[in-house]
Amino acid sequence: MSGGISGGEAGSRQTGVEGRAKRLKKLNRMFTSSTAQSATVAFRQRTWLITNAHGTATMARATDRFQLSAMRCNILQKCGLSEFGTFDICSPASVEFNKGRLLTNTMNLRLWHQELYLGATGTLAHFRDPRLYEYWTKKPLPEIAFVDLGSGTYVRQPRNETLWTMGNKYISASWDIYYLAPTLKSALNLTTLWNYVEDNGPASIFQGYTWSLDTFVDYAWDSLGKLKVVLVVLLVVETLCVQMTCMGLLTLLIRAANAQHMHRFSVFLALPSATLRIMASRQLMVDDDCGAAEDDEELEGLDLGAGGDAGGATTTNGGVGEKTDAEKKNVRMAADVDAGDDEEEGAVRTTKSGKKGSLNARSAAAAAAAKKNKPTTFGGRVYRALFGWLETKVKVNGKKLLPNSTAVLRFMAPLVLWAAAVVVVFGVSFVELANLQGPLSSLNAAAHVTYRVSRVRLAGNKLALSESVADNADYRTQLLDNLATLRQEYTALLYGGRIPPVNPNVTFEAVAPASTFANEEFANLFFKTRSCLREVASNCFPPGHEFYDITHNGLDAMIMRWMDDYTAFAHLPDELAFANHTLYKFINSVGGGDMVEA
């Protein structure tokens, strides 16, 4: 016998492996097909549609990055000027840092801007809310366009454009500025690209995105409200219609089965009461056929004994002998007849009065029985009114056969428990869904604070790197207005309050809950933490540095000092309000690092 494998066996094994491989490939195609994944995709889309948290966060981040990219473009152009070249913010390392951040912001903007309008990567879907689709596609917004006339000259041309188109133009211009900044430096302001970013980013694009953010939150809020109504309808339909119908049907089935079972036993009610008592009390005896022969012999012996007794009943002296059993039975029957004859006359005399008394007795007995069957307690009356029809009673020969209520309860208990569980699940879901609107309001408040911080940084940067004193008044006004709005929204985020919406037509409740007391992690981040909040630990300030304590004492301490320093910086005279001031050092180092990265 050979120890190797023959060619036929090897071929069959190879064929089996190939067959399994084909089946696995077919199964893989089946499970990864669009039809098989449609349920998962639909679940994912509807989940985001319900809360819209992802879209709201993306909208807030894009609003923030549009302001920051405009600030980076302004820094790259201003740092090319000789009067700002000695500032810390314009050092070679700082310039390279701003270039890198501009590239990152531009790439993120391209991703988020397209994702909001066209759908997430791998899908193609427009805004679910028709208001957003109409606004981004057809709503004309003010735009400052620049027509290049050649030889470094251009003409400003105000016109109208949609938010979708302006966003794409802005991203393209920001991308080109990144590559032109090392070459043009201070001459960037002579290009149409830099001027487009400078004029349209902080104006129409910012206004369009903030309007869209409020509308997005309003749509999410309305979706949650509709979902609550759907849950209530489902609860009513499931509990009152489906569950009650099922319980009613099961009750009828159990009642029918119980009635059929009772009718089978009702045959015993047709027997006399004495027979029923005998059947209930008589000991059960087993009859077998083993002693049939012995029984026959005993019967024959009894017959012979009876004949002998009859023959010997007469004595020899002609006297009366002992009476047989038959004679004794005849005597008892005769006595009964005589007694009956004596009582017959009395019975005839009392017939008329007896009938009347019998009727009265039967009426009294019926009234007593009705009174006995009538419930005496309120709960009993209610049960009799609601469920009395369920009680199957069989009456034969004046006897009543009652159903076994325990059997009905035993069969109904699982369905009743299931109905109760359904009500509890729907109730908990409704309460939890109602609680989702609170986090949505907190998310809206956090989004407002995030892009408002960037708005303050943009206005403060323009004031700190202003070339003309004539522009300082406008920059100060913008800075102070944004600081006042930021303080109001930041307080509302921490301790609860109303966030004024940009879109006046929204209907959602713009009152944010107190996030400080709603989430322990939030409270730890803003107040309790004593660690560095930078993404890269090596960039943290070392112990002994002037900013070490403020950056290791929670996010709230940094934000409050940052706003205070910016307020003081806005009130500096024109000759001191520059980026080399000591106030601006904290604003740029901590506000642009630890505070933003946290």
How are the strands of the largest sheet arranged?
A: 1-2
Mean pLDDT across residues: 78
Helical content band? 55-70%
Overall spatial form: elongated
Oligomer: single chain
Number of helical regions: 21
Low-confidence stretches: 1-5, 42-51, 306-356
Q: Strand fraction band?
A: under 5%
Number of strands: 6
* Category by helix and strand content: mainly alpha
Radius of gyration (Å): 50 Å
Write down the secondary-structure element order. HHHHHEEHHHHHHHEEHHHEEHHHHHH
Q: Mind describing the biggest β-sheet?
A: 2 strands, antiparallel
Description:
The radius of gyration is 50 Å and the shape is elongated. The strands form 3 sheets. A two-stranded antiparallel sheet has the order 1-2. The protein has a two-stranded antiparallel sheet with strand order 3-4. The chain has 21 helices and 6 strands. It is mainly α. It has helices at residues 7-32, 34-51, 53-78, 92-118, 130-138, 163-184, 192-265, 273-281, 292-311, 325-349, 351-373, 378-387, 405-435, 437-464, 472-495, 515-518, 520-528, 548-551, 555-570, 582-589, 594-597, and strands at residues 141-150, 153-161, 394-396, 399-401, 497-498, 511-512. Helices cover 70% and strands 5% of the residues. The protein has a domain at 440-598. A hairpin with a 2-residue loop joins strand 1 (141-150) and strand 2 (153-161). The model is unreliable at 1-5, 42-51 and 306-356 (pLDDT under 50). InterPro entries: Tiny_macrocysts_regulators. Residues 303-356 are annotated as: Disordered. The chain crosses the membrane at residues 229-254, 407-431.
